[in-house]
Amino acid sequence: MAGFGAGLRSVPLAVVLFALATFGTGIAAPASERFVAHGGAVRDLAVTADGRALVSGGFDYAVVLWERATGTPRARVVAHDGPVNDVIVLPGGAIAASAGDDGAIVLLDIGSGAVVARLFGHEAKVVALAARAGGEELASAGWDGTVRLWSIAERRERTRFGDPDRRYTGVAFLAEDGLVAADHTGSLTRWDGVSGRVRWRTPGNGFPTTRLLARGDLVISGSIDGSVRGWNAEDGRERFRLEGQEKPVLSLALSDDGAWLASGTAAGTIYLWHVAEQRGERVLRAPGGAVWSLAFAPDGRTLYSGHGDGAIRVWDISNGQQIGGPHALQLAASERLLGDERGAQLFRKCIGCHSLTPDDEHKAGPTFYHLIGRRAGTVPGYPYSEALRRSGIVWTEETLGRLFELGPEAFVPGSRMPLQRVPDPQDRAALVAYIARISAREQASGSNGAESGR
Prior knowledge:
Number of domains: 2
Structural class: mainly beta
Distance between the termini: 59 Å
CATH topology of the largest domain: Methylamine Dehydrogenase, Chain H
Largest sheet: 5 strands, mixed
Number of strands: 29
Shape: globular
Strand order of the largest sheet: 1-21-20-19-18
Number of helices: 6
Radius of gyration: 22 Å
Helix content: under 10%
CATH architecture of the largest domain: 7 Propeller
C-alpha cells in the first residue's frame, strides 16, 4: 500500500489559484481562450492515436472535436438528450463513440463531426465505454444492471452480461478474451468474453468505483473513497493501493507506455503516479474546479484535464507546468451576475444548466433570459420534450413556485427536467423572486449573443 508522499520527490504548484479580482498571468488572451467550448463540466476526454485530434464530452450534452495542436474546436455536436458521460476513439482513429445519460451510444466521424450511428438498448444512463483492440467490438456499462457488447460493423448488440442489482460504472477489455466491469458497490467482475461465465468478482467496499482502466495483466480502478487500486487481471487479486489524495477520485488516465498514471479529484488536484514503483511523483493544482476527466497524448509527456468550469487544460508532466488552456477559473457571463443574497446562493445550483443572458452559453438547459411571461418550451432551437412543449404553461412567479414545490416529475410529467425540488417555503420564495428579478435584466456586458425570440 502506497500513500501519496511515500517516495514523493517534489510537489510543485503548477498553477497558483489567483483571486479573480487580481488575476494576471502574462498569458496573451487568445492562448487563454483555447480549449474552451463546453457550457458545463468536461466529463471525459480522448486523444486519437496519431495525436492530431482531441475529443471531449460534456455535461452540456455536447461532444466537441478539437484540433489538439491549436486548442480550437472543429465541431461541436449535440447528439445526446442528456449529459455525456464517456468518450472514446475507436481503433483506426476515424470514429469516436460517446455515451450519455439518455441511454444512447453515438458514433461520430472525427473528420466531419457527422453522426454515423446511434445505438439504443440500455434502459438507463450509459456511463462507460471500451473498444476491443482489434476494433470489432464496443462494450458499454449502464445503470440498468447490464454490460453490453456491440458489433461496431453491424451496429447492433451481440450479447450482454450483468446483474440487475448492480449499477455498472466502468468497463474495460482485457488482453485475453475477457471483460471486466466496475459497479456502485465498489466490486469488480470479470467475465469470459465467449461463454459469459464469471471468472472472478472482488468484494465491494460500499464505495462506488468511478473509473476503470486495463492494460496487459493490470486493472486499475478509482473510487469515491479517494483510493486508486491495481488488480491482477487473471485472478482479481489486489496488487497495490495508492492513497493520500482528496476524495473522491473522479478521473484516471494511463500513458500509452504504461509508465505514468494520472488521477483527478473533486478538489481540483491531479496526482501523477509512477506505476512500476507505485509512488507519487507530483501534484498539479488547477483553477478550474473538479477534474472530471484526464487523457495522455501519445507522447506520454502531455496530459489533458477536463474541469468543472467547462475548460480543458494542458500539462507538461515532466515539470508539472500548465502549457495550455485557461490559467484562471472560467466564468460565463451569467455567473458574473450572481450576488450573495439567499436567492442567488440557491440559484448557483441552477446556473450549471441555465444562462441568464440572451446567449445560452452552451449550457444544457434553455436560457432564463426574460423567463417571466414566456410560454414553456418556446426558446428557438432548444430540443424540448414533447411534454413541455404541449404543457401550455406560462412561466410566472406562481408557476415557478409550483415547479420547485412539486418537482418536474409531478408538475410536468414526461418532462426531461432534472429533479429540482425546493421543499423549504422561504427558500423557494427567495429563489423565485431572484429568478424573476435577475432574468428580467438587459443583456449583461460580456455576453456575446444576440437576443433570441421568445
